[in-house]
Amino acid sequence: MMSDTLCKHIAIIMDGNGRWAKKRGMPRTFGHKKGAENVVNITRAMKESGVKYLTLYAFSTENWQRSQDEVTALMQLLRDYLDKEFKEIMENNVRIVFIGERDMLAEDIQQKIKTVEAESAGNTDLTLCIALSYGSRQEILCAAKKAMTLALEKKISPNDLSVEMFSSLLYTKDIPNPDILIRTSGEQRISNYLLWQLAYTELFFTNTMWPDFGKDELLDIIEKFNTRERRYGKN
Ligand code: FPP
């Protein structure tokens, strides 16, 4: 059953995989494996919530600086996810899009991403946006460079640049701004995630580690959002 909500878009910072594993005496990569399983779980729950967009922070620009082993493990999890979940994604009418610096990714992952995006482009129940090799300052810089190029080519003048036009130069050009941001694991930071897009987003922080973050907590947050009054700086 779909519930009624004004929330169109939930963005999540999936934090705490490492600590979740450590507490169990397991390697960090085991936590990431459980985290990837939870991506499937939460995507299913989203369909029931009636919310149409979900953006997940899977790998930040800064995450490239983690140990070689951890980076390799995360990239492998992503390959496995794209291979194994493709069927379910299509069966569930989910559209997948990726935001981030694609050039940094291995050639085969770039290829897989392109295929999944193209094949799922017509799906309409849920848009799952995966932030991969993503950094918000880098995204904003990239948009600023595009705007400067347009100006130098005399296609726009500096005064033409509006909030709407700038938004259309970001990776997220086809996606509405998030209504809800959730960060798991007790940290209360934005960590270079969707800085422009989060301007009026309602923020929710939970102590739950990402592998333990389930459907009940997700639906509970949507319920809380429904009762918050948003004024967008107006009275
Ligand atoms: C943060 O936990 C999590 C990440 C850096 C990676 C998130 C990736 C996944 C959940 C799996 C792959 C994703 C997909 C879409 C298949 P952390 O390692 O920073 O945890 P810690 O703060 O406890 O160390």
Throw out a few tags for this protein.
single chain; 235 residues; six-stranded parallel β-sheet; alpha/beta; binds farnesyl diphosphate
Percent strand: 15-25%
Classification by helices and strands = alpha/beta
Query: What Rg do the Cα atoms give?
Result: 18 Å
Approximate helicity band = 40-55%
Assembly state: single chain
Report the major sheet: 6 strands, parallel
> Low-confidence parts, pLDDT < 50 over ≥5 residues?
none
The H/E string reads EHHEHEHEHHEEH
What is the typical, i.e. mean, pLDDT?
96
Shape: globular
List the helices and strands and how they pair.
Elements lengths: L8 E5 L3 H7 L4 H22 L3 E8 L7 H24 L2 E6 L7 H14 L5 E9 L1 H17 L10 H5 L12 E4 L18 E4 L9 H13 L8
Parallel strand pairs: 1-2, 1-5, 2-4, 3-4, 5-6
Helix pairs in contact: 1-2, 2-3, 2-7, 3-4
Bound molecules: farnesyl diphosphate (FPP).
The site of farnesyl diphosphate has 20 residues, from α1, α2, β2 and α3.
